[in-house]
Amino acid sequence: MEGGSLVSELFIERLNYCIYVILLLIGLWAMLAKRNLVKKLIGMSIFQTAIILFYVSIAVKKDATIPIYLAEHDPHGSHAKVATEENATENQVAYNPVELKPETVKGYANPLPHVLMLTAIVVGVATLGLALALTQRIYQGYGTIEEDELLDKLDRADERASQSPIIKEKRNAQRRKSTQRAKAKAAAGSVTKSNMAAKPSAVTKGKKKAQPKKSPSKTSATKAKPKPKS
Amino acid sequence: MENAIAWIFIFPLFGSVFVALSRYVNIKLAYPISVLSMAGALWAGVETLQQAMASPNHEISYLLGGWTLDLYPRGVGIEFRADLLASMIALIVLGVGLLVTVYSKIHVEKETPNKEAIYYSLMLLQITGLAGICLTGDAFNLYVLIEVAALTGYGLIAMGSNRAAAATYNYLILGTIGASLYLLGVGYLYIKTGTLNMVGIREVIEANGLADSATMQVAFVLIGVGILIKMAFFPFHAWLPNAYCNAPTTTSCLLAPLVTKVMIYVMIRMVLSVFGVEFSFESTIWVSCMPWLVVIAIVCAAFLALSQREIKRMLAYLIVAEVGYMVGGVWIYNYYGLIGSIFHIISDACMTLCLFLGAGIILHKCKTTHFDGLRGLFSRMPLTMIGFFIGGFSIIGLPPTCGFFSKWYLITGGMVSGRWEYMVVLMFSTMVMVVLFFRLIERIHLAVDESGKDLGKGHGDLGLTKEQTRFDEAPLVMLVPLLVSAATVLIIGVYNQDVVNQIETFLQAYDLPKGVEYK
Q1: Span B185-198, average pLDDT
Q2: Subunit contact B309:A130, Cβ cutoff 8 A
Q3: Whole-structure pTM value
Q4: In chain A, what are the domain boundaries?
Q5: ipTM of this complex
Q6: Out of A164-178, B28-42, B220-234, which region has the weakest mean confidence (pLDDT)?
Q7: B154 close contact with A: CB closer than 8 A
């Protein structure tokens, strides 16, 4: 392609490679920028497929055949005539292993990249399967596969997990005390006043119930504790 | 034993199959089988190292299936090559693997009940993958083994809580990007050299003068960035802390000392054995920019570690900082820096193991690893705490421990090559480590808050009642691995010259600048 323009060099001669780069970038973008966990995995698949395309492209050869099957060794094939020209004793050699000579190798495509990609496909399938299983567990655990919602929930869970045990214990003790106080009030109130007495405790309980809805992680553990004791 | 190098893989690989099948017979068999197969693998590892030391050119080449290396370049067989570096790192991998397997009994029963068989099976496969990364001599096989180690690692981490599954997802996405970039780089190498054998690649590069080729530069960048992502180098570290903190205890004990270090080994292998010293250091701009990235990485990781209030999370950020040390040791392009870097892989694996085992015991006994829950631990578990502190002292770099000697070589390398920024940042990070660990020591020994207030009063299980300070040591099955790893830290420190001699023998084959002669 002497004197070929940039367009022909890039898009006609090396079309495969252009497509591989575009696919690679699409995949990378989807993995990093998409906010949906499943879409990220689709991106991952595209990313890996792009690499497979790259490897297969480097093994492309015009008019080449697979290296296992030698056409000239097939007595019934259409190339039987060619075979007889090259080897007189065709039938004897037909099923013996053949040492490849440079002039015969020319007709073969390099099998190695394809073989490598078989392995890479297996690895890719394993990765994808594992990732889908993980996504399912995330959905079971957090009820969402949107990254924004998930991150919110994870932040809250982390905050709760990294809380100092002293502060945790203090807060638990306070909770226990306040619920005990509320219970004592409710018990002290007479039957007629029970509605009135129940009201403030209902308010405090409502508060406690409202809190978990906003941040279930913070209080759900502590809420569960006092109840069985009471 | 001629086939020792093959036994390294046969033991854990077939062990994992038997362990996985043991759940149909008796699930109690899983633990002894995995310990036995790890012990066998460790024996094979020792044997391999001895063979490598004894052989005339200090390396063993082993071909599975009777293939040959006769055809140019380096034939068609898939080679296992154990030179001194590879066999040393593989030995560390197997040693850590054995200790963690022994240690894991109680944790695994408690944290993943009824899944012991699967857990141990994954663990053995993980160790197989990591040992394979060290010993393989084939660039594509390296990719497959990286993925074997990574996939089992994802499984091991995700066996924890739901939070662990979410952390694993991030790890998986980033890990896949890293490994895929590596694979792409190998493709470019293959285009240019026509071989996948590591030594073959270097021979072709040197014979054909490919150092100026743009393809080689692309391959170098792709492989380099891929490995940097996998080793959690600072800007790419985001997956590491969450994954290691939320993983089951044993998983973090196994992965934290090994995965990042093995990836640094891969980087050294790529730089020295595949691309060659001349190409890596002279034809690329990495030498001029990497030390500065390392400076940023170490400073940021040190500050992040300083801001943590939980032992496990703090240790995770420490690993990120340590990765910075070792990467820096390679890229300051100096003989002593590389000695330090390789020595630091070995010592860091031991001391990180020590710390994570200690943290695991603390979690087992106290149900928390938060700083506020540590008070009075020394009187409860003196032996555990001594082991833990030896690991900590080694991270700081106090003399009898191996951390001191590896840091010594790293700093020497920085000084000899005139990379003052690297030296300064090492000193700075040492200060930060001192603060980190002495803060822990204070918490563990003293019964007071930072403000001097006694928080223990009237809060039952947090106060230092007699009940709480009573001698209550960890079970032997956990304590022994911790003490063995602590002893290893000290022994490697005391016998550091022997280790360094082996590293020097390995580095003799490479033409590295020594600067002023130092000794």
Answers
A1: 88
A2: no
A3: 0.85
A4: 6-148
A5: 0.87
A6: A164-178
A7: yes
